[in-house]
Specification:
The complex is a heterodimer of chains A (488) and B (220). In chain A, 51% of the residues lie in helices and 11% in strands. Chain A is an alpha+beta fold. In chain A, the strands form 2 sheets. Chain A has a 6-stranded mixed sheet. In chain A, a hairpin with a 4-residue loop joins strand 1 and strand 2 (154-160). Helices cover 30% and strands 20% of the residues of chain B. Chain B has helices spanning 28-36, 81-85, 100-117, 140-149, 165-187, and strands at residues 13-21, 52-59, 62-70, 90-96, 122-128, 153-156. The longest helix of chain B is centred in the C-terminal third of the chain and has 23 residues, at 165-187. Residues 1-10, 38-48 and 189-220 of chain B have low confidence and may be disordered. Classes of the chains: A alpha+beta (488), B alpha/beta (220). At the A-B interface, helix 2, helix 6, helix 8, helix 11 and helix 12 of A face strand 1, helix 1, strand 3 and helix 2 of B.
Amino acid sequence: MFTHRKTVILPLSCAVPLSPSFLLSNLCLSNAVGFVYCCPPSSSPFYIPSSVKASHSVFFQLIDTFALEIGELKREMVQTSPTVDKDPPTVAGWGGERDSGYDSLRRRMSVLDRLTQTHPVWLLLAVTEEEACRILLKQPPGVFLVRKSGALQRKVLCVRLKDDQSGTPISHFPVRESQYNQVLEKAMHKCVLKPLKSVIEVALHDFQVRDTGALQQLRENLALAKTKRPQELGVDGAVPPDPMAIEKIRHKFLNMRKMYSPEKKVSLLLRVCKLIYTIMQDNSGRMYGADDFLPMLTYVVAQCDMPQLDTDIQYMMELLDPSLLQGEGGYYLTSAYGAMALIRNFQEEQAARVLSSEARNTLHQWHRRRTAQRTAPTVDDFQNYLRVALQEVDTGCTAKTLIVHPYTTTEEVCSLCAYKFKIPDPDTYALFLVTGDTRQQLAPDTHPQRIKAELHSRPRAQIFHFVFRKVPNLNLSDASTLHFQNNQ
Amino acid sequence: MPAMAAGGTGGKTYSFKVVLLGEGCVGKTSLVLRYCENKFNDKHITTLQASFLTKKLNITGKRVNLAIWDTAGQERFHALGPIYYRDSNGAVLVYDVTDEDSFQKVKNWVKELRKMLGNDICLCIVGNKIDLDKDRHVSVEEAESYAESVGAKHYHTSAKLNKGIEELFLDLCKRMMETAQAEERLKGNGASQSASSRRGVQIVDDEPQATPAGGCCSSG
């Protein structure tokens, strides 16, 4: 990882609120290309909660930890390759040919350091095969360079070998760069994710606690779902795991929680799925598809009654390598996500549509984060934040980003706006939804986040704004003011 | 574990995701089990299970990796559809020829898929259980003309008799390859860019002339 002086993208910005999904998406190593600080657009007036300021210092702590970890890793690597360091077999003869300073330098530096610092010498991507041969022929055996082959579309390692071998003493090795570099990913996880795991967990936990509505809903519905028989959750015929097996699965989920590597977590999730399948199959001898498996998984998740499983699933979905999301791990992760979503929205009175639009909204955001070109996400992208503009006749528009939970009503948002925008006469103001050239006043008992979710889930994305402004003319009849209703 | 570790290098390898939709009991599972019969990969955690299956094919010299995602067909799981069909290259929509309702359900899926994924996804509408033709409740003409009207291909299969299944998937793969190739052509010469969006950790070489001063290793 370090030999090419590779860097990692961590687009953390101090002004963007630290929501777990934000934190996770930015810690995704999969699209790492360079160390970049993404600054928020300077024109947008951001509302900075105090917790975010605190996160700023957390960020620098993280960087320190990161640096420390790299240092340790390097020390490890140096210690594990002492023989190479003392007498590199293929690089014999270097000392004599080089300037006198080189030997002492060699003794002080590890192989890794030497490669890192010398790459401008050997990384000659522009030279042709002929040129490479010409350069190397004049060099002692063991000298190498790396060039790029246009025909192969690959880098090629060219090494000067001993003359006594048949043919040309130069060998060319095309370098295969795999799409999914497991070693690299593993190393990155170790040196970045491992030290961050506890921080992420604290952030996720804080988020869950702060977002009382969501956590409460999840807890209540998990408890409710736990009381249901398998048949009530859609299981049809297949035999469910007994309490002992459930305990075993719980134990696996607890172990899963301890892992920092998303891949290791997923492999434990797969083991849980395997166990469920085995129990189903042992009792019937037949094979099961999703019609039987998904209800059973839902039942198992309900029986385990672990609200923290939800954040673990989020962690995996955000951090698993995208190429693995298409495979078996991705399939069962999707199923676990689905089972959790069903339980979260379990209460009978909640129509399927709510789940549909909310799940879609979340997925839409998640999908965009994981697949789109990585640009700094806007605050609007995150759940529980709502951007509201204050429209005044004389001063124009000012926007603020407010924390608004899914259960916050328009009435509550209005009083929050009045406070944040320091409105002396809040009674004459209301919250409006502005789309294109229409403006709708929101009824006090509607939920702006739900409206946002609904708008996001529409197939054709429309530009919309929440605007806090004076009610145009109170004398007008109500007919002129449309009330946007939650259609759930 | 990585069933779809997309080759990318060497010869062309296509990796396609196909989602399997349809009401419970129409025979989705049997259909896909038939197709992947005896082709199970021992490395799979879920050996012998039919929710997620993979198949490797070779079509006109091109390697194709197929990942088939089964979905739960009961109405209560309908809302989870999007999380399964996102990013799919193809969809196999199965109904039971003896069950008019299951055909209606297919129509709902078609509407939803077209709305959410547009025309990028190759649709196959499959009337299963043709071994029970005497109890048929969905007419061949109706099904075929409906499929045509929505830009889908229609197939008749019998998982029980292993009829029509191989053809269905082979045809689907060819269509998905055509779609992928058309997409590549659209992207023009930037062929080397095509895989970049799906890459794992990206390795970006510093240009040779870049100075290593102040690099990440300067502080031991």
